[in-house]
Amino acid sequence: MPPPKSSEILFWHGRYLRQAGWTRSLRLHLYRKTGLAGRRRVLDLGCGTGALAAEISGRCGAAVFGLDRDPEALAFAAREHGPAASWALGEAAALPFSGESFDLVVTHYFWMWVKEPEKVLAECLRVLEPGGCLLSLAEPDYSRGRDTPPQLTTIREQLTEHLVSEGADPSAGSKIDKLFKQAGLKTEAGVLARGWGPEEHRREFRHEWAYVEKVLKGRKDLKGSKELERKAIGRGVRRSAMPVHWAVGRKP
């Protein structure tokens, strides 16, 4: 019998799946742009619970590897997705792979958590073969989000503060282009202004507030902000936007 799935890891797996849902159209475009179907060895760096590694495996005939530093997330990935990928525990700044092992390395909501991006980029270049690609599928810039009604900006600011307290760089997305170029990658980058209107907020309301109440537990007036958003959705005036950055870096 497989080990039980903890409610904590199930919560985060659900969160990662929703994030992947938000970026699906951009991600599929970038898969085509980088020729995913013809790749031979792909590394999903910071794979978490394995949602994207499994997706990539289903879209190409490549040998897919998923690496993460969290053993519980990897154990979940192995149970949930089985042989879709080879799962490896390790640090992004010291990848446990030999040089020129991959022709594609992908990341998703990853760079904001990287303490020393220059070291991680050096490792990515080391394991990429010449002509291989480093693909940042989506990296949000939380610092430039916008909310309507403006009173709801407080929740976004508190979530940004929480990310910082957890060691994240909420504005990492805006730095990806420069970082890739400084590492010596031939880089193409862009930004998607992801926006939600009332319908998207209505659909995501329960899930987003489960996340807000989990990570901001104990903060003042969450109940009031939740009710404010509920009413704004009902009146059809709730909107938000956040830049999501992408980059394709090719190793010379």
Instruction: Give the helix level as a range of percent.
Output: 40-55%
Q: How far apart lie the N and C ends?
A: 48 Å
Overall outline: globular
By CATH, the topology of the domain at 7-140 and 169-194 and 242-250 is Rossmann fold
* Uncertain segments: none
Derived from helix and strand composition plus strand pairing, the structural class reads: alpha/beta
Rg, please?
Answer: 19 Å
The CATH homologous superfamily of the domain at 7-140 and 169-194 and 242-250: Vaccinia Virus protein VP39
Proper CATH architecture of the domain at 7-140 and 169-194 and 242-250: 3-Layer(aba) Sandwich
Number of helices: 9
Can you describe what's shown?
- This protein has 252 residues and is an alpha/beta fold.
- It has a domain of 169 residues: Rossmann fold (3-Layer(aba) Sandwich).
- 43% of the residues lie in helices and 24% in strands.
- It has nine helices and eight strands.
- Strands 1, 2, 3, 4, 5, 6, 7 and 8 form an eight-stranded mixed β-sheet that branches.
- Helix 8 packs antiparallel against helix 9.
- The protein is globular, with a radius of gyration of 19 Å.
- It starts with 6 loop residues before the first helix and ends with a strand.
